[in-house]
Amino acid sequence: MGFVAELKRRNVLRMAGLYVVGAWLVVQVITTVLPVFGTPDWLARSIVVLLAIGFLPALVFSWVFQLTPEGLRLDQQVDAATSISNDTGRRMDRAIIVALVLALGYFAVDKFVLAPRRAAQAQQQAEAAVARQGVEAHSVAVLPFADMSSAKDQEYMSDGLAEEVLNLLAKIPALQVTSRSSAFSFKGKEVGIAEIARQLHVAHVLEGSVRKAGNRLRVTAKLIDARTDTEVWSEEYDRPLDDIFAVQDEIAAAVVAQLKITLLGDAPKSKVVDPKAYALFLQARPLSRLHTADGYEKSNALYLQGLAIDANYAPAWDGLAYNYRRQANNGMRPNEEGYRLAHEALAKALAIEPGYAPSIAALGRIALDHDGDLPAAARQLERAMTLAPNDPDIVYTAARVAEGLGRLDLSSRLDQYALQHDPLNPTLQNIVGIDFRYAGHFDSAVDAFRKVLVLSPDNISAHYRMGEALLLKKNYSAALAAFQQEPHEGWRMIGLPMAYHALGDRAKSDAAFAEVIAKHGTDWTCSIANAYAYTGDADHAFEWLDKAVAAHDANLAVIVVDNLITNLHKDPRWRPFLRKIGRAPEQLAAIRFDVPLPAVAPPR
């Protein structure tokens, strides 16, 4: 018998066909199913290799053994008269046909159903990758560094070092850096790097730790590519405390190098100050951010202690000025005294560093909110934006000036840029909601305020702002409910008379006006004027507007764009009042305000 005939008799060729078709089907199934369960790539590769290795043993097995009614026997032990080899061959033929039908069916489904889906998915992934490269490749969030000191008493140092690195990176125009408030919002939370990056819309995350022992620091830092969850770079610095500024510079330089960013000019450097004064500065800054009377007082004391050691540190004077201004705005310090002290502190900051953009912007904010000097505010913010066009805080302040000038398109664009770089900041989300309200997009405004309350459930003013938008939507019952949920007494009380008036309850409206005037008549002059304007009581509205001017009420800054008070626009006293405070349309149009518009990425 010839060799080929013997292969046929022993069903070796049929075994080869059945094995190949069956193995192909198995491979198709595992490559489709296993990824669904997140299995590693090596598992599918291993199965394919095992199937390939098994081919020859299967053929040998078919040559050596034969299936009989009594089970498997060596072929040489089976009598040709009793062999069922032909029956086995026919069964194998049927199995091959079934396998081929299944293979053809799978091929058809794959070609006409699965392949188009894979192609669409691949296209989406490619487009997303291109978008990431164009928008996010040079993007980073700096997380608060962990305090690894044995006493766990150096949190101000670990947070401060991370923030200073963030500030250095933020000065690089080609790099998108998430602002502190959003990046630090994950502090103490068990959130993975990939999820943090997703929420902050960045490709990279910088994290680290600080251990202080005596006069030495051990700082570790690592840069992670969140798209692949891989560590791009890591380093450990063991230095004396005096070298903290050099460590900050080296970490920032390493990030720039790893992200392959081309610098336009010299790399930014830390401002060097006496280490003891710097430690006091780092302790003062987080106390200020508590936004409490006690926090401001303690922060002021620490700033002044540090400045007594080394007075040549502009950021400390700028921080002190911020505290004084906030104390004045919140009734914690006499208005005139607070703004005078803030102005003096900013003058000292700029005497040390004439181009310190945050202090220049702060002078513009004082000119806008307290002095009512819009031309001066515009000049200061133009200069600050020229010096630091991508600083979200300065962009935010520029938006307030644009708002005061009645240029809502510009203010909205600036606010969107600030929010893009600080997406989890409830204050910015709140401002965006107010932008929508001023523009008449009341549904969008309500949605924005809901986002504020998701980010910060106890946020001061978000319920009130939502109530304003609902009033203008003429959804009066919902507006009243929103005002009643406002946790801040002042905002809650200023909303109630408007809601009661809208619902037709004059008695309750009058009683609510009397209560808010009795409790907040000194500090809420412009808000009371606005409430009277909404109710149509123009006489009381103008009376309180005059009080607001005398009190330098900061809320006058947005009077020309506030659509809550459109009832006053037809009153003959409106234009003269605006002219008196320098905000008549022709006066505003004459004020030049040309600021570089930062690029705003499309919504994601």
SSE diagram, text form:
Elements: H1 3-9, H2 12-33, H3 41-64, E1 65-68, E2 71-74, H4 85-136, E3 139-142, E4 146-147, H5 155-170, E5 176-177, H6 180-183, H7 193-200, E6 204-213, E7 216-225, E8 230-240, H8 244-258, H9 275-288, H10 293-309, H11 314-329, H12 335-352, H13 357-371, H14 374-387, H15 392-404, H16 408-421, H17 426-438, H18 442-455, H19 462-472, H20 476-485, H21 489-502, H22 506-520, H23 525-535, H24 538-550, H25 574-580, H26 585-589
Parallel strand pairs: 3-5, 3-6, 4-6
Antiparallel strand pairs: 1-2, 6-7, 7-8
Question: Which descriptors apply to this entry?
Answer:
Serine Threonine Protein Phosphatase 5, Tetratricopeptide repeat, alpha/beta, 26 helices, elongated, two-stranded antiparallel sheet, 604 residues, Rossmann fold, 8% strand
Summarize the structure.
With 604 residues, the chain is of the alpha/beta class.
Helix content: 55-70%
Computed CA radius of gyration, to the nearest angstrom: 35 Å
CATH class of the domain at 424-571: Mainly Alpha
* Class by SSE composition: alpha/beta
Mean pLDDT across all amino acids = 87
Structure description:
The protein has 604 residues and is α/β, with parallel strands linked by helices. Among the domains are: 3-130, no CATH class; 139-270, TolB, N-terminal domain (Rossmann fold, 3-Layer(aba) Sandwich); 424-571, Tetratricopeptide repeat domain (Serine Threonine Protein Phosphatase 5, Tetratricopeptide repeat, Alpha Horseshoe). Helix content is 63%, strand content 8%. It is built from 26 helices and 8 strands. The chain has helices spanning 3-9, 12-33, 41-64, 85-136, 155-170, 180-183, 193-200, 244-258, 275-288, 293-309, 314-329, 335-352, 357-371, 374-387, 392-404, 408-421, 426-438, 442-455, 462-472, 476-485, 489-502, 506-520, 525-535, 538-550, 574-580, 585-589; strands at 65-68, 71-74, 139-142, 146-147, 176-177, 204-213, 216-225, 230-240. The strands form 2 sheets. Strands 3, 4, 5, 6, 7 and 8 form a 6-stranded mixed β-sheet that branches. The chain has a two-stranded antiparallel ribbon with strand order 1-2. A hairpin with a 2-residue loop joins strand 1 (65-68) and strand 2 (71-74). Helix 5 packs across helix 8, helix 11 (314-329) runs antiparallel to helix 12 and helix 11 (314-329) packs parallel to helix 13. The longest helix is centred in the N-terminal third of the chain and has 52 residues, at 85-136. The protein is elongated, with a radius of gyration of 35 Å. The model is unreliable at 125-135 (pLDDT under 50).
